[in-house]
Specification:
Layout (H helix, E strand, L loop, with lengths): L1 H10 L4 H15 L11 H17 L10
Length: 68
C-alpha cells in the first residue's frame, strides 16, 4: 500500500485517499495469492536456449533447464 501511495505522489495523481478503500478491498480478496510455478522439460529448455539464447542473454533473463 505504501508503494502505491508513493507512486500516486511521484506521478502527482490526486485521489489516493479516495482510492485506498477499494485497493484495500481488492488486496483482501486476493487472500493467500501465490505466483504460478512452471516446469519446463529439459529438451524444451535446450531448444529455447539454442534458438533464443541471444535474446535471453541480451535482456538478462536466465537460461532454463539443467544445462542453463
Amino acid at each position: 500500500m505504501a508503494e502505491l501511495e508513493r507512486i500516486y505522489a511521484e506521478l502527482g495523481i490526486d485521489g489516493f485517499a479516495g482510492a485506498r478503500p477499494a485497493v484495500e478491498a481488492y488486496l483482501a480478496g486476493l487472500g493467500a495469492f501465490r505466483k504460478n510455478e512452471y516446469r519446463v522439460d529439459d529438451d524444451v529448455a535446450a531448444k529455447v536456449s539454442a534458438r533464443w539464447g541471444f535474446a535471453l542473454d541480451a535482456w538478462g533473463y536466465p537460461r532454463l533447464g539443467a544445462a542453463a
